[in-house]
Design goal:
rod-shaped; 9 helices; four-stranded mixed β-sheet; alpha+beta
Amino acid sequence: MNGLSQWARSHKPQAAAIAAAIVVAIVVAIAVASGAFATSEQQPEQQESRTVDVTLSVTADHGWDENSTPAIAHIEGDDVDFYHAVTPDADGNKGTSTVELAEGDYTVSFVSPVNSDGSAFDIYDTGAPVDITVDADAKTAPAVMCPMAQIPADKVTDDMLADIVDKTKDAIKKGDETLKGDAGTGILDKLDGNVAKNPNASDKTKQEATDADKNVNVNDKPAQTTPSAKNDNNVKADSNAGSQPSGNGSSNAGSASSKPSQSSQPSKPAHTHTWVNHTATRQVWVSNWVDVPDYGTQQVVVGNTYIFSDGYSTTDINAAKAHGRELAMAGKDCGYQTKPVYENQTVQIGSHKEDHGSYTTETYVDYVYCSSCGARQ
């Protein structure tokens, strides 16, 4: 540097200006190489999603108690897909729980419990899957209501039980902490015992319920219930790095472009519906028309009263004849009058048609639904 200054004093001003420009260029190049001009945008920051506690409220009309399996909520969103168990309270037939969800759109459906007598619940007629939007700025948090109507054990089909067993196993696999560990073991034990109590359960379905604990690991890590934090600044940081000036031309440019960028998460595969028949029962009247007689009260002639001129009367024809002979022998008038004798009697006065049929129980398919997402047709 001292040499350059002495050289500048011994030359023209134009030459001195050229030398000063060379010095500035060298300083800038060194600063760029050392990262002096790097901006804070090159340090991406993790952005946490805001969460909201969503209430799940389940009610049953009858039969849901501590000996039943829980109602299991299936919660699906853009970045999460997990299950959460809702158990009945001490009084039975109702239970409430909360799940922490990040802001976004979700679909919530439920898996029916199985009670200790083998009965289950009709959920899709009363508590169909619902879509909710979670917004941390909303005045009230979302609440999902699921009313359940009990189906008696003898009306629960084997197909319904097999579907519940399969869904419960899926729930254990992709469940949060309410379906893992001791809680998950207890649920599978109740499922095994309660399915066996149902009179319509096939040996295959009973065995599936018994072997459920062999097909799933209740000690697996609980499912992720909120999406991972998003790094929204990586792309911007990479862009700034690529635009930095370089002291050695294409060498630094190639280094910037080779910097690994944040890989986008793979898109969620398209959902394929698995349609299952939902059956219900109804009472159907079977007619049986018959002729039924109609009765009424009428006065019916049952005899005669014989009245003689001397005041004698009788309803006995033989007595009347004898009294007539006596009058004739005595030279008296033996004539008589007759008067009908009536009696009230119940007699058939006609007939009418009556349907003496009866009700019979009929099973039918009222709709089909997807066994994984709950959509209906």
